[in-house]
Write a structure and sequence with these properties.
By secondary structure, this protein is an alpha/beta fold. The chain has one domain (about 5-220): Undecaprenyl pyrophosphate synthetase. It is built from seven helices and six strands, in the order βααβαβαβααββα. A six-stranded parallel sheet has the order 3-4-2-1-5-6, sandwiched between helices. The radius of gyration is 18 Å and the shape is globular. The two termini are about 20 Å apart. Bound molecules: 3-methylbut-3-enyl trihydrogen diphosphate (IPE) (2 copies) and magnesium ion. One 3-methylbut-3-enyl trihydrogen diphosphate binds near residues 54, 57 and 181.
Length: about 230
């Protein structure tokens, strides 16, 4: 497996179950992403994309959104050195325009300083929406075609995918969603056309080596036909 994608869901429920605030769950969830990076490296998985904040998550109470924004910058400051030691390259997908300036600065610095690392590429979807990504790609493609006087019918799937946030990664082989839900919630809707889907009942902060290996074992039993026989 080359590319693993994860919808890290269930932080809020995890905290509420213990009578704690949802924000506490988000903190534990962020810590658990560190664990997942280590597990992926150990298993030789070179690309990991995780869903951290969706374009729909702005609907949540202001206090929770604020806590998630603060957690974001805090997290990358806290783990910058460790990620460097582990050779983790960081990239972010999503709309940066509506994010607080310090969050965008954190993203740019993390991307810039980690550019040459090769052990693991960690892609974090933050203020990400699959529909937004596709509409934005369509707009950019249309603009280019207008400027170059090209016929829109010259655009094919491969050409279009070059306009997505990241165009140099293989498509995810396996998508794991924790928290028991069977939906994509607007995550990587273009890229997962032929991805194997797996739902894990446990909540994200409880996801560890056992759950990951169980998901990978299940993935290995799948027959990927890609429309062929
Ligand atoms: C996922 O956990 C993290 C984010 C969406 C930011 P949730 O916060 O959605 O947790 P539940 O699903 O409410 O338990
Ligand atoms: C998806 O989880 C987004 C992230 C995990 C970042 P949600 O909790 O927002 O999804 P829904 O609302 O259950 O579909
Ligand atoms: Mg949720």
């Amino acid at each position: 497996m080359r590319h693993l994608a994860v919808i890290m869901d269930g932080n809020g429920r995890w905290a509420e179950k213990q009578g704690r605030r949802r924000e506490f769950g988000h903190r534990e969830g962020a810590e658990n992403l560190r664990t997942l990076c280590v597990l992926c490296r150990e298993r030789g998985i070179p690309y990991l994309t995780v869903y951290a904040f969706s374009t729909e998550n702005w609907r949540r109470p202001k206090a929770e959104v604020g806590a998630l924004m603060r957690l974001f910058s805090h997290y990358f400051r806290k783990y910058a050195r460790e990620m460097e030691a582990e050779g983790i390259r960081l990239r972010f997908i999503g709309e940066r325009g509506d994010l607080p300036a310090d969050v965008v600065r954190t993203m740019e610095e993390a991307e810039e300083s980690s550019r040459d690392r090769t052990e693991l590429q960690l892609v974090i979807a933050f203020n990400y929406g699959g529909r937004r990504e596709i509409v934005q790609a369509a707009q950019r493609a249309a603009r280019d075609m207008l400027r170059e006087g090209l016929d829109p019918s010259s655009l094919n799937e491969e050409g279009f995918s070059r306009y997505l946030y990241i165009d140099d990664l293989p498509e995810p082989d396996l998508l794991i969603r924790t928290g028991g839900e069977y939906r994509l919630s607007n995550f990587l809707i273009w890229q997962t056309a032929y991805t194997e889907l797996y739902t894990e009942e446990c909540l994200w902060p409880d996801f560890g080596a056992f759950e990951l290996d169980r998901a990978i074992a299940d993935y290995k039993t799948r027959q990927r036909r890609f429309g062929d026989v």
